[in-house]
Amino acid sequence: MDDLGRLSPEEFKAAEKMPLIIILDNIRSMHNVGSVFRTADAFLCEQIMLCGYTPQPPHRDIHKTALGATETVAWSYFKETAAAVAQARQKGYAVYAVEQAVHSISTEKMEVLKTLSADGIAKGLVLILGNEVQGVEQQIIDLSDGCLEIPQYGTKHSLNISVAAGIVIWESSKLLRSIR
């Protein structure tokens, strides 16, 4: 691991984070939650906000896929997803639900987000990932600045939340690095 130049947990906590917050809206699977923690660690995401009945660490099933990322990535719990969105907005972050919707923005065209905020460029970005079956609640979509959609070309039109998180976190980190 030393040869890979990986950060220690202490170095991770002290490192400058990507201004990217992940909100998990009523996720059922502990494995999906753990996977999102691990991905958030890989991209130095600022925080994960767990909402509703989304499982919270510590739990062995979350740990099984997080592999220690619950100890490095900052996280908080909100009973209501709207409260998490409100807190992120107070920081000046743009808020986007990851959802297939009318007028959603393809992750292939995320560069338009560089100018989509009330005062020009937002201070950071929030991605909301929803329930494995129901998706992001309509009330939460209505609180968002818009929706991001991952283009899909096959017969299936949905992805596992952990896969979707990996894609949108990667695309968001590329965008945020380009405007920093």
UniProtKB/TrEMBL annotation:
The keyword Transferase applies. Keywords: Methyltransferase, Transferase. The lineage of its organism: Bacteria, Pseudomonadati, Bacteroidota, Chitinophagia, Chitinophagales. GO terms for cellular component: cytosol. The keyword Methyltransferase applies. It comes from Arachidicoccus rhizosphaerae. Residues 20-169 form the tRNA/rRNA methyltransferase SpoU type domain. GO terms for molecular function: RNA binding; RNA methyltransferase activity. One of its GO terms (biological process) is methylation. It holds the Pfam family SpoU_methylase. This is SpoU rRNA Methylase family protein. It comes from the Bacteria.
